[in-house]
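Table S5 (text form). Sequence records supplied for joint modeling of the two-component complex.
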Amino acid sequence: MYISLTNRPEDPEGTPKGTKAANGVSSVVISLGVVSLLTDISTESVSAILPLYVTSVLGLSTVAYGVLDGLYQGVSAIVRIGAGWAADQGNQPKWVAFFGYGLSAIARIGLLLATSFGALAAVLTADRLGKGIRTAPRDSLITAASKPNNLAASFGVHRALDNTGAAIGPLLAFVILLLIPNGFSTVFVVSLAFALVGVAVLGIIVPNRGSNARAEPAAPGGEPRGSRRRIRWRELNNPGLKRLLLAAGMLGVLTIGDGFIYLVLQDRSAFAAQYFPLLYVGTNVAFLIFAVPIGKFADRFGRARTFVFGHVFLLAAYVSASLPVTGAAITILCLVLLGGFYAATDGILSVLATQFTTSDTRATSIAAAQTVVALSRFVAAAGFGILWFAIGREPAMVLVSIGIAIAIPIVAIILRGARPYRADV
Amino acid sequence: MTSRQRIILLSTISAVALIVVIVFGTLAYLRSQTALRTPSSVSVIPVTTFTGDRVEFRNTASGADYGKVASVPLDDASGVRSVSSQYCDRVYSTPKLTMCLTTDAGIVTTWTALQFGETGSQEQSWSLPGAPSRTRISANSQLVAETSFVTGVSYAGVGFSTETIIATSSGKSFGNIERFTLLVDGEQVAAADRNIWGVTFSDDDRHFYATAASSGSTWLVYGDLIDKTLVSVRENAECPSLSPDGNRVAFKKNTGTLDSPDWRIAVLNLTTMVETVLSEERSVDDQVEWLDDATLLYGLPRADVVGDSDVWSMPADGSGTPTLFIPHAWSPSVVRP
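The corresponding structure-token record, covering 762 residues in total, follows.
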């Protein structure tokens, strides 16, 4: 079964199996966290040095690549929904996630071979598709392996491990380039190795826990695992989930993307200008520090409340970036607030999505919520970019801050009216 | 599989991955150390300042002096190179100034633009938001410009973009010229995805040419530092370079697709607006430098060695064939004191 568990009989309570760590988080969640940690080291080490690699090998064509980025995001959104649906339909979330992680790992092999911009773009697209495919089934597995009362904390543990990888990756890549000038191929080999071990951990250690685990706990003569089921649209088309998607979309279109915030900071502070290429690592570090405590807070005081409150952090980050204060402290404060925002919203969104559906449509529901967020943030980035040039960066920041300050109470009201879905209602 | 078997399988996979990484990494490290300890693969003389009519460039010959700014006399370009102690990824010099875009490698790797005076003293510097790309100085050394990438805007973020700064050599910055008003065929472009790169200066301390890009198109633009405008001159022209006589501008022109660009060098006569595409058949991704009013210099990376390149020369009128000008060199600038 699992690495830490031999043959224990099925739990009659339907409590997910797997030994519990001291904080009550399933070993399955830890394993998934380790998979994400390894994968993020792999991804982020390459992302960090990719611009350098591209300039020394491919040149300025990357600037045109930015134009295509939107297209990839759209494709990624479609595969995300498709993968969530496939994970539910076949009741095989693990293997759908495995396919996604595997695709990204194979893309790493392509990096070693890609010598043209077209080839590199194809490799990056494959990597991004893999990310789109794996996320919802993976979050579905986390949900299946967690108890309802520690769900947010479980996501917190997963996201903490995930972001540990995202913080290590760039630093590892730069250390390699420091030791081996022009050692891009070494970075790619290291990245590939981390990706493959991550896929191996998923394939070998993590059990394929379908949605039946909780909904139909080991019912004798019950539906066999892995059988095909028809998704009941009623489970997805319910008022609670609709409200969540509406709320997530409203906040998403006001979430302008960290890049813009970093650019504002860069303009203000010499510290931010100097460390500009690594500001996102600071955000990742703050995210990983806050992920577990905020997850526990959410389990105790309410997930929807935490999700809404997380956007107060975002508002505070906007305000801190807009303040006419220079110096390192305000930059660090802003990164801490951004990290807090992600810790209070990223995993929590998946938790909320599972509350408004049954376990049979869990991955689809998570994918739907994540897609709404991704698309609305894409709209936000495009729209804010136009504002940025039209009225200037400071007024644009102020406008978005006002927008989010208005949206937060509205979303709080929307989510207050949302009731968790019950199949028998 | 039992859990013991799973552990063994996973441990085996991890061990194999670790061994492959260690072997590959160690070999790469030893190779690079050997390269660093080996004397330069070309003849060099260490110097503190360069003199005479010369071409300054980044030395890419393997060995101890890899990455340093070097110089060869104009009348003996393939001869012994003088090498300074300064490392630059991209470098440009006039008789009075040197602009150097350099990497501060470390666990936290950052990039800096440095301006040096005639005696090698550092006159100004600023941090770059990503890997260096282009730099230029006006002929009278009054204005400096650099383009770098903007990175660290996270995975799956808004995509790659550039930042182009113009400043006076005495330290007054015009900031990121992306904020200038961009007019394409008279219409203002306010799109968020616009990028500006590759500045070349006129000799009036006010105007310059550069590349503007938006929605997959690029334009040669004519910039004005007082009106803060960028006005399109021609579509599909990147990294312009004005001829010493100011009558022509050389640039790279994409004859491929957005996904797989194939750049030809073209020279536009600014009086007649007649464009001549040169016969160089390899794709050139560089900001061309004028050796004189009749000859262009440009870098081409070596296909077989990552990080090595050569500087080639080519007649600017479309005749003739490319000639290897300086082997193992990158980012040339012609300096005539």
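Note: Confidence is low (pLDDT under 50) at residues 1-22, 64-68, 212-227 of chain A.
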